[in-house]
Amino acid sequence: MTTGSQDERPRKATRRDVARLAGVSDALVSYALNGGAPVAPGTRRRILEAVAELGYRPNQAARALRSGSARTLVLAVPDRDDPVFANPFFAEYAAAIESAAWERGYALYTTATSFEPERLRTRFEEFAARMVDGVLVLSSGAADPTTIDPVGLPWVELNVSSPRAGVASVGTDLRGGAERATEHLLEHGARTVAFVGELDGQEARHRGWRDACERWGVPPGPVLDGGYTREGGFVSGLVIADSEDRPDAVFAASDRTAVGVLRAFHEVGVRVPEDVALVGFDGSWEAEYTWPPLTTVRQPVVAMAEAAVARLVGEPGGEHREFAPELVIRASCGEHGADGTAREDPHDGAPDAHEPVAHEQ
Question: Between 41-54 and 26-34, two packed helices, what is the crossing angle to 10 degrees?
Answer without folding.
Answer: 90
